[in-house]
Amino acid sequence: MAFKLKGKPKVYVTRLVPQPGIDILEKECELTFWKSDEAIPQEELLKNVRGVDGLFCMLTDQINKEVIEAAGPQLQVVATMSVGFEHIDVAECDKRNIVVANTPNVSTDSVAELTVALLLLTSRRLLEGVTAVKNGEWGAWKPMWLLGTEMTQRTVGILGLGRIGYGVARRLRPFGVRKILYHDVVSVSYASDVGAEFVTFEELIKESDFICICCNLTAQTRHKFNKDTFKKMKKSAILVNSGRGGVVHHDDLYEALVNGDIAAAGLDVTEPEPLPASHPLISLSNCIVLPHMGSNTWESRNSMSSTAAKNILAVFHKEKPMGEVHAK
User: Fold this and answer.
1) DSSP-assigned letter for residue 211
2) Selected catalytic residue, list 183, 249, 250, 292
3) pLDDT tens string for the chain (328 positions)?
4) Which of 4, 38, 142, 182 is the most buried (most CB within 10 A)?
5) 87 is catalytic
6) Helices of type H across the chain
7) Are 171 and 112 in contact (CB under 8 A)?
8) For residue 120, what are the CA distances in angstroms to 15, 111, 169?
9) Secondary structure (3-state) at 239
10) What's the Cα-to-Cα distance from 71 to each of 48, 81, 127, 299, rounded to whole Å?
């Protein structure tokens, strides 16, 4: 059911966000904010959404049935400044004809760049080198100290050759990799543009020297990298995850790294997030954990903010937003 708006529509923004999105919305909407860079407490969210026509939210906000009901029947759109929308009860929104929209495709380049950076950081043991310098451990030259692995003439495996996976493959080609393998739900025609070869998951994990996880989290991919998977990988293999934390079973990864089943891992996504500082993976020198920095560029975040704002206005204008999503 659509509601006719009287006066300027009310939009609640659950965080301080990049200015481009605000500039777009404030011309046509009455805005209120949670004025902090920290996540809004759930009780504050429930209190502050009452009477709003649109909700501009983050991946860290739980937009559940209680929040939707607290907002009221005039709520028309929930726009998240993220690609993921697992934090939103999309089925409940569908029932109430509330449009849900995400910000797809705006962080492709930044996440692909970070994936390659994390692969280099891990394979060349760069963080260990930085730590050694800071701790005064850099002494006379040693021929066997902090030896890493080159990408030249290596086989790279990519799980999920979507926009980000393709971006990773395109960036890795100039490093002189020998072969790029990928596994996905189906083979894709554009894989030939980067010389990527479609293989089974079993082939991917057995043949790859480096594996980049660039897929979404689904029932099929949850904990796809587990104890059995790690046993089948090369002992020299390096795993990088910039997709979703739940694709990797973290306790099994810890065991694999400690036992030498694989050589190293670099994670930009974890389960849970944030990963507690006391988690055993944090203590390992052959595991680098980043605080989910894939889209941490001004370009990406400005674009995400603008897209979320445009999605909200599109709904108010009775137009289809760019990132509309529905429950399956």
Assistant:
1) E
2) 292
3) 334 446 899 999 999 999 999 999 999 999 999 999 999 999 999 999 999 999 999 999 999 999 999 999 999 999 999 988 999 999 999 999 999 999 998 999 999 999 999 999 999 999 999 999 999 999 999 999 999 999 999 999 999 999 999 999 999 999 999 999 999 999 999 999 999 999 999 999 999 999 999 999 999 999 999 999 999 999 999 999 999 999 999 999 999 999 999 999 999 999 999 999 999 999 999 999 999 999 999 999 999 999 999 999 999 999 999 999 999 7
4) 182
5) no
6) 19-26, 42-48, 65-71, 90-95, 108-123, 126-134, 163-172, 201-207, 227-232, 250-259, 298-316
7) yes
8) 33, 14, 14
9) strand
10) 8, 19, 46, 32
Q: What is the pTM of this model?
A: 0.89
The whole-angstrom separation of Cα 257 and Cα 42 is: 37
Identify the residue whose tokens are 């209680």: 66
Is the separation of the CB atoms in 27 and 75 below 8 Å? no
Q: Strand, helix or coil at 233? A: coil
Estimate to the nearest angstrom the gap between the alpha carbon of 77 and the chain centroid. Answer: 23
Phi, psi of 215 (to 5 degrees): -100, 170
Residue 197's DSSP bridge partners are 181
d(CA 43, CA 184): 40
Amino acid at 123: S
